[in-house]
Amino acid sequence: MYISRQGRSWMMLIILFGVELCAVAAADADGQCDGDGCEERHNAWTSQGECLQERMGWDSFVCVCTASVCDMPGSIPHPQQTDVYTVVTSDRQHHRFHVTHGTMSTAPTGGGHVVHLNTRIAYQQMLGFGGSVTDASGIVFFGLSEAVQDLLIRSYFGADGIAYNIVRTPIGGSDFSKRPYSYDDRPGDVALAHFALAQEDLMYKVPLLKRAQTLAKETSELKIFASPWSPPAWMKNNGRFNGSGSLIPAMRQPYADYIVKFLDEYSSRGLRMWGITTQNEPLAGLQFDVAFNAMVFTAEDMRAWLVENLLPALTAGGHDDLELIISDQGRDHLPHYPAQILAHDELSRRVSGIGIHWYQDTPENLHHLTETRAVLPDYFTLHTEACLGYDSPPTERVKLGDWGRAERYASSIIETSNRGTSGWVDWNLALDLQGGPNWASNFVDSPIIVDTEHDKFYRQPMYYALGHFSKFVARGARAVYMSLLHAPLPGVAASAFLNPDGGVVVVLLNSEETETTVSLQPRMSQEKYINIVLPAKSIQTVLFRAT
């Protein structure tokens, strides 16, 4: 067959392009294929470019980021015209932040479900969405090259990422450290003469928080709050960081001073805390012998410690503006635990919010959220910790590419937002391939998993599930009414928000194996509809103007 010179040139370009694609698909970051490790990869389009997919044996895929290949969600602005909308889609099979645009219709889709919105009926104000800077996250982050570090931190906090605006960090060590430690491990040092930040703070947490703080300024002020897992072991009646010990009564003031010294040290490094939770999971030690850093703090003891020790110490140290968040544990302890603390007049005025973890969440205790809002309406509720894999077999602590875990995240954010919660904060920002490091072997999953050996990281479906909210729901937004709150659709869950600038955000989750059609009616007084198809196993964010 005769091929012209021009034709041969085009054919050569096609061959070279094909070879390049094959090389990307078959090689690891170091350019070497490792046999059985060469999983299937192919490209998926996002708003900003290509996602290098990798399937790791679960039902969906991860997006691979290396120094040379890494998609970013990019800029996805709200429409400015009142009759147009934008839809952002992620699903199990194909997409991550796939963006489409449309014009509202004058009639709903035949056979579809009509969902009415009313942005004039507004509920709680949103504080934000984010994750946690732990020792483990810092260790894996700084194990990457500078170029890949930049991509990872932008993925979370950059305007072209998913725009996190709130972060939690431990006071001292947690299980997600390589060792148990505190800031003063000299027994009996009640004057805290030997208090000092640990190397983990100076090498990992402080520099990572400062980089996040700088990036977050592109979209919002970063709110940082801190949580203690355990005081120095010598301040506890069991003499250990872990287990079921509680604070020795004589150590109440030294421990309050310890917290203030932490706040001072971080503030001197440009990291003034927005808030603190008063104790991570204060009742866990009454339920089981905790394998990692912990302390029992009953509501009665917490109330006394706050009034007699911590509040005066905060005032003396110039931290009166600190937001105090109590409880910081499962919703099965609502509303009785915080209610006992807030029964004290001074604390009822000084406490700002109630922290909630998701580990004891069941359909049967979901009503505790609405009860808490009804009984304690003057305090925000903030989801302060979640992760998956903690109760899985050892080989399934990390499930790279699992879509079910993304659904769990999206479902939790929707159900808590629909019941008065003002934000949702994930656990570790990033972990290694095992789900650590963790000194207590309490390995879990994370939205980003890091492979430091090959200088790359994987964005999991959970990352995109979080981004469907964090990137679009602005601080100061209000949760607003939608008819799904009272007339649910099988397999479909949704939340709606009104941003301060008049942009409306609706996030929908379809957990069914089949697609479904939904017609959103943004303004009940107008016959205008957003007719959308929810793909099977998908999350969609719909953006439009309120008026």
UniProtKB/TrEMBL annotation:
Domain Glycosyl hydrolase family 30 TIM-barrel: 128-473
GO molecular function, one term: signaling receptor binding
Stretch forming the signal peptide: 1-26
Pathway of action: Sphingolipid metabolism; Lipid metabolism; sphingolipid metabolism
Sections of the chain in a coiled coil: none
PANTHER family on file: GLUCOSYLCERAMIDASE, LYSOSOMAL ACID GLUCOSYLCERAMIDASE
Name of the protein described by the UniProt record: Glucosylceramidase
Organism of this sequence: Hyalella azteca (Amphipod)
